[in-house]
Automatic annotation (TrEMBL):
Catalytic activity, EC: 4.2.1.96
GO biological process assignments: tetrahydrobiopterin biosynthetic process
InterPro entries given in the database record: PCD_sf (IPR036428), Pterin_deHydtase (IPR001533)
Domain of life per record: Bacteria
Family per record: Belongs to the pterin-4-alpha-carbinolamine dehydratase family.
Catalysis performed (reactions): (4aS,6R)-4a-hydroxy-L-erythro-5,6,7,8-tetrahydrobiopterin = (6R)-L-erythro-6,7-dihydrobiopterin + H2O
Keyword line: Lyase
Top-rank EC class of the record's enzyme: lyase
Protein name (record): 4a-hydroxytetrahydrobiopterin dehydratase
Keyword Lyase attached: yes
C-alpha cells in the first residue's frame, strides 16, 4: 500500500492535565462540530493530548468553515 499524500489541512495539538480532561475536550469539540455540521479529524493520543485537524472534504481544501470551527475550538 502506498503512503497517502496529505491533503490541505490545518492542525493543532492540545495538551491537558489527564485523560479525563482530554476526553471532555473531545466531546466539546464534537458538540461544536455537530452544531456547525462541519467535522474535524480528532486524535486523542499520549493519554492527555488531542490533535485536531481541519479541512473541508467537499472542497478538498481549507475553507472559511475550517477557520470558523478552529476559532470556536480555541474558545473552549
Ligand atoms: C451532509 C453533511 O452536511 C456533509 O457531509 C458535511 C459533514 N461534515 C463535514 N465536515 C468537513 N470537515 N467537511 C465536509 O465537507 C463536511 N460535510
Amino acid at each position: 500500500m502506498n503512503w497517502n499524500k496529505e491533503t490541505e489541512k490545518i492542525t493543532k495539538e492540545f495538551t491537558f492535565k489527564n485523560f479525563k480532561e482530554a476526553l471532555a475536550f473531545v466531546n466539546q469539540v464534537g458538540d461544536l462540530a455537530e452544531n456547525m455540521d462541519h467535522h474535524p479529524d480528532i486524535l486523542l493520543h499520549s493519554y492527555k493530548k488531542v490533535t485536531i485537524s481541519l479541512t473541508s472534504h467537499s472542497d478538498g481544501k481549507v475553507t472559511e468553515k475550517d477557520h470558523q470551527l478552529a476559532s470556536k475550538i480555541d474558545e473552549i
